[in-house]
Design a protein that fits this description.
Layout lengths: L1 E6 L6 H7 L6 E6 L6 H6 L5 E4 L12 H9 L3 E5 L2 H9 L5 E3 L1 H7 L25 H13 L5 H13 L7 H6 L5 H13 L3 H17 L1
Parallel strand pairs: 1-2, 1-3, 3-4, 4-5
Length: 217
């Protein structure tokens, strides 16, 4: 029996995650809320073979520490990270054995982003619903909007500047566009584009789950 522990719930809801990776006769998959400092010590008592870190707390509690992850890996447990806290920690520990997956991980690993603010969101502590928009998603969408000739490079820079200056719990598309100099026609086109765009943190979470699924088959 292979045991897998996944820390998620924010970037991807548990029910959607289980559609990709769930328990079978040969595999036990346990989903847990976003990881915080101390959680891995408790997880070790469950004797997992694989740990996937997608979501984690940044400001509500102390974030999971590097030493905690290193201690887990020293015991032979494979640790994978993507999407949010997982991507950040994987970029910091990939040379020491942690495996990073997806767009957000690559953004950190390549030094394009370097702050936890890029993936931080305000969340409902009960439902784990995101109450703000992560900067990394906005960056991804605005860059794609430039590629699709919906906005110019200069307009993208303005939108990102507004987003970065906004405290993360209050960061959202509506306020960012309202504070920008874009005309109403361009705002309407961009809003439609945003509605059709992928949530890159969710896509990365799915990629991690599919990766583990394929690996244990």
């Amino acid at each position: 029996m292979i045991k897998v522990i996944i820390y998620a719930g924010l970037s991807i809801p548990f029910d959607e995650a289980k559609e990709i990776l769930d328990s079978t006769d040969d595999v036990e998959v346990v989903y847990k809320r976003p990881i915080k400092r101390g959680d891995l010590g408790a997880a070790l008592k469950e004797n997992p073979d694989i740990i996937g870190i997608i979501d984690g707390v940044f400001h509500q509690n102390s974030a999971v520490g590097h030493k905690e992850i290193l201690n887990v890996m020293k015991k032979g447990i494979e640790v994978y990270g993507a999407s949010s806290m997982g991507a950040l920690r994987a970029s910091e520990l990939d040379t020491l054995g942690m495996t990073g997956i997806g767009y957000v991980y690559k953004q950190y690993a390549d030094g394009i982003v370097d702050s936890d603010d890029d993936v931080a969101v305000m969340l409902d502590s009960e439902t784990l619903e995101a109450l703000s928009e992560p900067l990394i998603n906005m960056k991804y969408v605005f860059e794609n909007a430039v590629s699709e000739n919906i906005i110019t490079e200069e307009e993208k820079d303005e939108l990102l500047s507004i987003s970065k200056k906004t405290y993360y719990p209050k960061r959202n598309y509506a306020q960012t566009l309202a504070d920008s100099s874009l005309d109403s026609d361009k705002k309407d086109k961009l809003i439609n584009f945003i509605r059709e765009s992928k949530d890159i943190k969710k896509e990365d979470a799915k990629e991690l789950l599919k990766y583990i699924y394929d690996m244990i088959q």
